[in-house]
Amino acid sequence: MIFNKVGINTFDVLEAAGTKWNFLKFFPGLVGGHCIGVDPYYLTHKARELGYHSKVITSGRAINDAVGAYVARETVKKIVANGGDISQSKVLVMGATFKENVADIRNSKVVDVITELKSFGVNVEVVDPHASSDQVKHEYGFALEPQIGSDYDAVIVAVNHTEYLGKSESYFQEISKSKGVIVDVKGVYKDKIKQLSYWSL
Q: Taking the domains of the chain in order of start, what are their residue ranges?
């Protein structure tokens, strides 16, 4: 979020930091699921019972919990910057599970992206080759699309399922409007999207 305000790419910073021999690579994303997204709250609850308030853990979770809405707002800004009408816009979200190549949708932060987009009046379509549409509908109130459509104002690559890796820019051009935006949450298409607008965490 800071790098975005500064105007530099997070992955460029991580690449530079990675030249240090003992650098540990951690990448930004939508941190959900039933372990990392939940367990810190058990720890902070126990700590409070013992009279200790862990500001670092609670701040970390607060930031992670806000990323989904942040991605949605940045998507809306990009659509508007490209001359799009938000009330008439259509966004494709690729992926609904909490992480890559699993069917588990528990505590998926992709839902936060979708909810925030819908709060702006955006027409959101969601696809996921691993998730059950019935389960998604039951848990979150929306169904998955049976197939990817076209004429999208923005495409959000939210979950890096194997099926979504290695797509060419021409693929995204085929399913997007001429001024479409590619929102690449984890940066897998960095330096590969040249014609369409591109943004990543």
A: 2-200
Q: How far apart are the first and last CA of the chain?
A: 7
Measuring CA to CA, how many Å separate 182 from each of 39, 143, 177, 192?
A: 32, 22, 11, 11
pTM above threshold 0.85: yes
74: left (phi over 0), alpha (psi -120 to 50) or beta: alpha
pLDDT along the chain (201 residues), means of 10: 88 89 85 81 91 92 92 98 95 97 96 98 98 97 96 98 95 96 95 94 92
* Catalytic residue numbers, as ranges: 35
Any idea which residue has 């990675």 for tokens? 18
CATH number attached to the domain at 2-200: 3.40.50.720
